[in-house]
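Section 5.1 Outputs to date
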Amino acid sequence: MNLRHLRCFIAVAEELHFGRAARRLHIEQSPLSRTIRQLEADLGVTLLDRSPRSVRLTLAGQVFLEDARRVLLAFEQAQTKARAAANHRNTLRIALSGDMGQARLSALLALCREEAPRVGIRLFEAPLAQLVSGLRSDLYDAGFALAAEVDSGVVATPVWRDPLVVALPARHPLLAFKEVPLEEVASYPLVLCDPQVCEGCSRQRERLLSTVDAQPTVAEYVKTHSLMLALVAAGYGVGFSSAAHLAGCHQADVVVRPLGDETASLTTYLLRPEGEVMEPLRQFIDRVERVGRPQGADQRPM
């Protein structure tokens, strides 16, 4: 017995007519009839009651049909999974949760193209919960996030740690400081990233602000880093950023100052499923680590 026997039987059982089943399978009726008889002989049961006018399933045929369909479906699913695995064997599926910083991401992708041109990189933007779920369900191979609070089955490794800086409007009182105390920043209206858009960044920022006694006032929540800089330039408030996020940004009337707290930083984590790390992903992680950490924030006007 093989899959051809099962396909022939299923066709006859569903059509209840040898001629229609043969046309459906694109074969002659005689070999189809021989295949069914061979199958019955191998099983030692009669699957079909045949008469000059009709074909009917026996009780054994009805039972065998259900299992034959399951066997064929299981094989087709296994075949699909195997082909999918072969197709993305040379493609890494990387999810991004939050803003990773354009300059660093570009440098990483360029390094991957240079050192592994045959390994494609597909990028996906996803909320943190979707990223974690996708890693557990084999939708993604790895991901970047600004949070390490993940479920079991997922490993979160810190890969980049960037000092936090303050984005200030030109002619702002805090420009009197070369390194701005966090307590002073918290006393002015803030322009912050939306917690629903960048959950990890918000968590790290909340932990930082919880260390000061003042209750910060939020002027605006924004969904993009560029909008934050635009609102800061317009005088809506002050914002937090990092050297990695500011690299390549050009916003007039914004000045950057480092925070006085040297421990204030923004950590980026690489998330991956638990278990063995395959070679293409291992090499990708090595390149992530080699991209390096950015230098201190530029203090010149942007």
